[in-house]
Amino acid sequence: MKGSLSHEFETGLPAADVWEVYGGLLVGDLIPQLLPQVFSKVELVEGDGGVGTVLLVTFPPGTPGSEAFKEEFIKVDNENCIKEVLVTEGSFLDHGFKKYLVRIEIIGKEQKTSTIRSTIEYEVDPEHASNPPVVSTSGLATIAKAITEYIKKKKKG
């Protein structure tokens, strides 16, 4: 069983400002600071923020399910502001997913504004197809909102 879910968030910011955070490692540094209830820690395992970068992402204590997961950057397209991250170990893969990919697209619009489109593409193991794990973009939506607020505060201050 395969599927995908998307969420769009209007930022009110130029695409370049948003991509500056999402395009490399900064987003991983900011999430535990801005949203410790989502991820308590994001550690660089290997890489420099480009394709092949691996992160270890840790959930806050008490989060149901796995404590952590590893993800690998499989696409970083600076020209089109697209990043794809594939979960390679733990969490989602421990709970019935065969594939769990997150794509972030920063879509520039007129009048110096942009949209963050967060997409989850997934594939469920055949043995979990009758009772598939839950897929939600709510975490990505929360992150998009927090990152946008962070950039706006930084620009003012």
TrEMBL record:
Compartment(s): Nucleus
Gene Ontology CC annotation, any one: nucleus
Pfam family name, one: Bet_v_1
Residues in coiled coil: none
Database matches in InterPro entries: Bet_v_I/MLP, Plant_def-hormone_signal, START-like_dom_sf
Predominant localisation class: nucleus
Origin superkingdom: Eukaryota
Domain Bet v I/Major latex protein: 28-152
An MF annotation (GO) of this entry: abscisic acid binding
Cited CDD domains: Bet_v1-like
Annotated GO biological process: abscisic acid-activated signaling pathway; defense response
Family: Belongs to the BetVI family.
Protein name, UniProt field: Bet v I/Major latex protein domain-containing protein
Record organism: Sorghum bicolor (Sorghum)
